[in-house]
């Protein structure tokens, strides 16, 4: 219901209520039933909650639009949903990137956050498509993949890279036998003791 993750972007399914709107409306209905007799106090709470939900809705939309704008018109795959143990073709439009005007574009890919047991695939020269604006490369997705990562470069040996401003391009892989492990956030605090000067 609501948003569907597709190619690492959250897309609203047509004709459905976005999940945050659904959650807001169902939460408000439950609270209305619980606070039926509280009068003005309940109304004040609902107004505050609606304002907060509206802010969250705007923030979510802003984030989605920003992320979508980063790859809009640059990268897409065929098929759209990448399946494990299948072949996927990645289409790339270098004219909207720092590789604009380069005579060649090379595709560099790996899986599972660049940690797949087979390592990175060898760089692949991308081929021109019939429409002339995109280039393409095809890769076989392993059965134990849960995410596909890739970047583009101007030559087989590197040179200028398009790595999505250091974030790399990544697409979820469906149907694999390995599930994506959670990310662990670690906070490191360093405290420096004062240094005394001894003469």
UniProtKB/TrEMBL annotation:
Which EC numbers characterise this protein's activity in its record?
2.4.1.21
* Chain ranges of the Carbohydrate binding module family domain: 85-174
Give me the reactions it catalyses: [(1->4)-alpha-D-glucosyl](n) + ADP-alpha-D-glucose = [(1->4)-alpha-D-glucosyl](n+1) + ADP + H(+)
PANTHER family this protein is in? PTHR46083, STARCH SYNTHASE 3, CHLOROPLASTIC_AMYLOPLASTIC (PTHR46083:SF5)
Q: Which residues form a coiled coil?
A: none
Source superkingdom: Eukaryota
Q: What is this protein called?
A: starch synthase
Any one Gene Ontology MF annotation carried by this entry is: alpha-1,4-glucan glucosyltransferase (ADP-glucose donor) activity
